[in-house]
Amino acid sequence: MPLRTPDEYIASLRDDREVWFRGERISDVTAHPVMGKAVKHAAIDYEMAESAAYRDLAVVSEGGQTYSRYYKIPANAEDLLLRSRLIEAATAEGDTLVVLIKEIGTDALFALLAVTAQMDDPVYHQRVRMFYEYCRDNDLALATAQTDVKGDRVKRPADQADPDLYLRVVARREDGVVVRGAKIHTSVTPNVNEVIVLPTRAMSEREADWSIAFALPVNTPGVKLLTSPFGDGDVRPGERPISARHKMMETMTVFDDVFVPNDRIFLDGDTRRAGALALTFVEYHRFTAVSYKLPLVDAIVGAAATIADYNGILGATHVREKLISLIVYAETLRALTEKAAQRCVPKATGQVAPDPLMVNMAKSHFAHGYHTAVQHLQELAGGILVTGPGDEDWTAPETRPYLEKYLVGRNGVDAAQRMRMMNFIRDLTASDYGAYQEVLAIHAEGSLEAEKLQIFRSYTDNGSAQRVMALARKMAT
Ligand SMILES: Cc1cc2nc3c(=O)[nH]c(=O)nc-3n(C[C@H](O)[C@H](O)[C@H](O)COP(=O)(O)OP(=O)(O)OC[C@H]3O[C@@H](n4cnc5c(N)ncnc54)[C@H](O)[C@@H]3O)c2cc1C
Fold this sequence. Notes:
By secondary structure, the protein is an alpha+beta fold. It has 17 helices and 14 strands.
């Protein structure tokens, strides 16, 4: 099977899927003014595979087969580094917004392959393998729905007032199961072909019905996508240079008594492996996350240095300090991301995963520092981020001369140049898009506390306790 073209990808989304937006059923997501933008953004994936500049990075040719690099099962550190570079390059093409239509789905596939390989019954691994090959060979776009709506966060799935607050099996048939529940915050669902569903947490022995993983085409009857309208406002390209062109969509993904055929069920009732699957997915997915954060933090550093220069303050001591702390922030993230690949750990069947300690340190470092990085950038830019003129003020002959005269920067920096950079920073940090990135930094790919927990769990004793005890003994003698 050849790789799909951008047009073939877009055409594949016109399949009568049940997508809702602001209370209205959308018949064609590709033609919708807001959703169409997200579709165009996602098509970057397929454009890169066709472009001479990216083909070597975006496409793998081996054993007479050609397929998207996202589907390359990582066998060593080099595979992980190339995957990271591709994710970084695609996000840079998206002007700081991740593409995600293969990244998150292959994270789930790698986790499913690793976990099912350890099951006593080989049928689940065979099913995952077949599904993986089907997606790879047809160059499909994928979403992963893991996060449940969860109700009372402290109560287990089986103890919720409504058992459907975690997705579960409600009926069993000879040829499959029927599932009910709702996953939340599912990215890119309206513009992919398949949705992979994973458990969100470890399960107890009482929770066999909640221990379920499967995949379905998005247009399966009973799958309903309630799309978040966040960021659907009027975005003028001058004022919002990023979000006027790029968008990602999240859905509440409702499974209203949906039939899942046997060949699409990858885990069913195995309470012990539900938690392992949830965790293995997160190991892969946080590596994707830190890879796609790199163009974002690079943009913050570059914008901070540029606007400081335009404002004439580059020589000030406090400005230098802020720029240095931004550089350290960005480059520490890059170093930890690379280290996570280099220190990869073996999984089943010759596959590797990024080192969980390094990945969680990278993600935690990014998430804890992001708001401070934004603060530094906004501080260097000035209040005009939210008080500046609109696109129309630049075209009206009565107002433009005042903008040109009064909004200049240091000698040699004209108003249009300075305000272009200001608008970029505004979109990056002080718009719906900026707010989206801030919440994404804290919550996506797991909350701050989840990362801390994993850092603690994955730290293996490096002998420091023994060394300090030996030191204490030596000092006591
Ligand atoms: C833009 C965006 C895109 C996303 N995309 C996807 C996606 O494609 N697929 C997907 O599956 N998920 C996705 N997510 C979900 C993401 O992984 C979750 O947001 C994250 O796991 C946190 O879950 P939550 O938002 O439900 O918050 P909650 O879990 O409700 O957390 C809220 C607060 O409660 C705390 N808390 C939660 N439980 C407990 C407890 N038992 N005890 C004490 N404190 C607790 C948390 O630490 C946090 O401080 C996305 C999220 C965002 C914001």
